[in-house]
Specification:
This protein is an alpha/beta fold. The protein has 2 domains: 147 residues, Urease, subunit C, domain 1 (Roll), CATH 2.30.40; 248 residues, TIM Barrel (Alpha-Beta Barrel), CATH 3.20.20.140. The chain is 27% helix and 22% strand. The longest helix is centred in the N-terminal third of the chain and has 15 residues.
Length: 447
C-alpha cells in the first residue's frame, strides 16, 4: 500500500522553463560579498509579501518589503519565487535512506512485529553491513543530501556522536551549528520499556521519543510507561502516537507535549495513521517528519501530499491548507526547542533559506505542488549548498558538483574545505562510489 508518488513526472514545457530561467544577480563589488540580499515573495508566519531578505554571514539582518542594501552586497532577484525559511524534517532515520523501498509482507499492528520479522531483517542487512565497514558517515551524508534536495535545512534523527557529519544540513541533536550543548535535545528511538536513567529537564529542552507506533493495545500502553518513567513533559516530542485515543491526547495537550506525524510510513506498515484532528483539538503542536525513505516518502513535499490526501479522505478536511507550511517550519522548530534560531525568516535568525518556484498564490498550498526540479536555492547558515546552475554561475562560479534533476541542471556542494570534521572533503561522487562499491543496490538520490 505504498502511496509514494513519483517525483519527476514534470511536463516538458515546465522543465524547459526552469532550464531557461534567468536569475538576475547584481554585484556592487567584484570581490565575494559579505552580505547577500534575496528578492522575491517572502514567506513569514504572519504573511507573505514581496520584499528583501538580507543576511550577513550566517545570520538574517533584515526581512522587510525593502531593506537597505549594504555596500558591496550581492543582490539576487528571484523574480517572484517563494523565499521560505529552510524546511525542518521533524524526524528521520537518516542513515537508513541508502536503502530502497521496503514492501511489508503483511499489515502489522505494532512496531515490534515488523522489526522482528525475517523479511525486515533481510531488508536491513545491507545497512548493518555498511555500518560494520565503517561507512556510517557516508550513509548519513547520503541521507542528508536526499533531504537537502527538497529544501530541508534541519533534520532530526542522526547520531549525535558522529562528528564527521557536521558539514551539510543542521543535525538537530548535535552538529547543528547553533552553539547548543549536546544534551539540549535527546532522542530515544528504542522500546520505551528499555529506557534507563533520567532526563535533566533543566538541560534537555526537547526529548524526542518513539511511542505508540502501531494500532493495538500494546502500542497504546507505551504512553503509560512513558508517564511512569517521568518522561511526559512539555519538552516531550512524541513520534507517531498512532495508537493514541482521546485520553492520551488530552494529557498531551494539558502538559504541552508535541507530536511528530509520519503518515506515509504509518499507512504502509499499519494501514492507519495518527488521529491528527483529535490531537489538534487538544492543542497539541503537530509537526511532519518523513520518518525514513524505505516506508516513508522520498521528500518532504511527498510527505505533505500524503498528509493532504489523508486530510481529504479521512479527516474530512479538518486541517486547513494554510497549516502545511507551519508543520515543516515553526511547529518542528518549537517541538525541537530551536524556535529562537530556525524555522522562520526574521532578523537574528539563522540564514537557512529555501527558494521554490511560485505555482500557487497560497505559499502553503504551493508546497503541495512543488517537486524536486522546482527547488531553486537552498542556503544553510548563509551558505548556498544547492540550487539551479544559473544561480551558482553567478553566486559561486565553477563551484561544487554538477547535478541534474529531471533534466534540470543543478549544483550541489557536499565537500566543505573550511570544515575540520573528519571526511569533510568528501564529494558526492566519492560518497556514492564508496557506498555503491559495497552496496550496488544503493537507493537513488532522485526517483
Amino acid at each position: 500500500m505504498d502511496r509514494s508518488r513519483p517525483m519527476l513526472r514534470r511536463a516538458s514545457p515546465f522543465v524547459t522553463f526552469l532550464l531557461t530561467l534567468c536569475v538576475a544577480v547584481f554585484q556592487a563589488h567584484p570581490s565575494p560579498a559579505a552580505d547577500v540580499v534575496l528578492r522575491g515573495m517572502i514567506v513569514t508566519p504572519a504573511a507573505s509579501f514581496n520584499g528583501d531578505v538580507t543576511f550577513s554571514g550566517d545570520t538574517l539582518t533584515c526581512v522587510a518589503p525593502a531593506c537597505t542594501v549594504p555596500a558591496g552586497a550581492m543582490v539576487i532577484d528571484t523574480h517572484g519565487a517563494y523565499i521560505y525559511p529552510g524546511f525542518i524534517d521533524a524526524h528521520n532515520h537518516v542513515a537508513y535512506n541508502i536503502l530502497p523501498k521496503f514492501t511489508p509482507p503483511k499489515v502489522y499492528t505494532n512496531r515490534t512485529q515488523w522489526e522482528g520479522a525475517d523479511a525486515y531483517k533481510t531488508f536491513k542487512k545491507p545497512y548493518d553491513d555498511l555500518k560494520s565497514q565503517g561507512l556510517f558517515c557516508e550513509m548519513v551524508k547520503y541521507g542528508e543530501i536526499r533531504a537537502l534536495l527538497s529544501g530541508v535545512t534541519t533534520i532530526e534523527g542522526t547520531s549525535p556522536a558522529s562528528q564527521c557529519i557536521g558539514v551539510l544540513v543542521r543535525n538537530a541533536e548535535n552538529q547543528n551549528g547553533l552553539g547548543l550543548p549536546s544534551d539540549y535535545i535527546r532522542t530515544f528511538i528504542l522500546d520505551i520499556n528499555s529506557f534507563k536513567g533520567a532526563i535533566d529537564w533543566t538541560k534537555t529542552k526537547s526529548f524526542v521519543v518513539h511511542l505508540a507506533e502501531g494500532t493495538n493495545e500494546s502500542a497504546r500502553a507505551e504512553f503509560q510507561t512513558l508517564k511512569q518513567k517521568g518522561l511526559l513533559h512539555k519538552e516531550t516530542a512524541i513520534i507517531h502516537g498512532t495508537a493514541f485515543t482521546d485520553a492520551e491526547f488530552t494529557e498531551m495537550g494539558q502538559i504541552g507535549a508535541n507530536l511528530i506525524w509520519s503518515p506515509q510510513s504509518n499507512l504502509v506498515l499499519y494501514q492507519k495513521t495518527t488521529n491528527i484532528p483529535l490531537a489538534r483539538q487538544h492543542g497539541v503542536n503537530v509537526s511532519v517528519g518523513v520518518d525514513w525513505n524505505p516506508t516513508g516518502s522520498d521528500t518532504i513535499f511527498d510527505e505533505l501530499r500524503v498528509a493532504d490526501g489523508v486530510n481529504t479522505s479521512t479527516f474530512t478536511g479538518a486541517i486547513a491548507s494554510s497549516e502545511w507550511l507551519s508543520m515543516i517550519t515553526t511547529n518542528p522548530a518549537k517541538a525541537l526547542a530551536l524556535d529562537a534560531k530556525v524555522g522562520k525568516l526574521a532578523q537574528g535568525f539563522k540564514a537557512d533559506i529555501t527558494v521554490v518556484a511560485h505555482q500557487d498564490n497560497d505559499p502553503s498550498v504551493n508546497l503541495l505542488k512543488t517537486h524536486l526540479p522546482d527547488v531553486q536555492m537552498v542556503w544553510v547558515g548563509g551558505q548556498l549548498l544547492y540550487g539551479d546552475k544559473a544561480i551558482f554561475e553567478s553566486v559561486k562560479p565553477n563551484a561544487c558538483e554538477a547535478f541534474a534533476v529531471a533534466g534540470v541542471e543543478k549544483r550541489l556542494c557536499v565537500a566543505d574545505p573550511t570544515s575540520t570534521a573528519p571526511k569533510h572533503d568528501q564529494t558526492l561522487a566519492v560518497i556514492q562510489n564508496t557506498l555503491s562499491q559495497s552496496y550496488p543496490q544503493l537507493a537513488p538520490l532522485v526517483r
